[in-house]
Amino acid sequence: MQKGKELYAGKAKSVYLTDNPDELILLFRNDTSAFDGEKIDQLDRKGMVNNRFNAFIMEKLEAAGIQTHHKQILSDQESLVKNLDMLPIECVVRNISAGSICKRLGVEEGMDLNPSTFEFFLKNDELHDPMINDYHIQSFGWATQAEVEAMKKLTFEVNDVLKALFKGIGLLLVDYKLEFGRYKGELVLGDEFTPDGCRLWDAETRMKMDKDRFRQGLGGVVEAYEEVAHRLGVPGI
Ligand code: TMP
Ligand code: ASP
Asked: Percent of the chain at pLDDT above 70?
């Protein structure tokens, strides 16, 4: 398998073509951004840690019967993935209130949400990823009704698997964001799962172990990701 030209560079990952049109290479860079690219930094080891962390989680999800884009790790910072036709939508599940929902609804951080809540956002940094609803998705043709239902179902299935996984290592899965794409007629998870795209708190101390350490200038960002990886038993970290 040959690495081809760069197809797209996001804020923390780059995507490369391969000689197989069904496969892409994801490069996990050390770049870290927050607030839609307003705050940017380079964090040593982050690309490698996230690449290995992500592969470990994708394998857990596949083992639970959830289809993902992940195929295999290729190097410290690269993984081979399926080439999906991505939907421009972000799916967020929240088990505990934190982040934008606190600002938007004027609620305190740290409230248990029962049931866990779900939100759709449009993937558009210039517009600061506005919240959208099921009707917007269909009215503007971003996905079909069946895909809307599949995104909700799959995002909650991921929640069941990962809430339990993190609970087992003394962490609370507060919230996370997932994106999906079409692949050979099916909707498949097409996103990383790393501490860059979720919130994880220590269950006892409620210490933040995710990208909020970067957003809030708390320091020890990669060290926190590594601590989570060690507790999970992610190989190579
Ligand atoms: P929020 O509180 O900023 O809406 O984010 C909810 C969760 O989703 C949080 O774990 C961060 C993640 N997220 C991203 O990783 N990227 C995004 O663009 C958005 C909107 C959320
Ligand atoms: N991922 C988005 C960004 O990098 C939002 C965030 O995580 O704050 O700007």
From this structure: 100
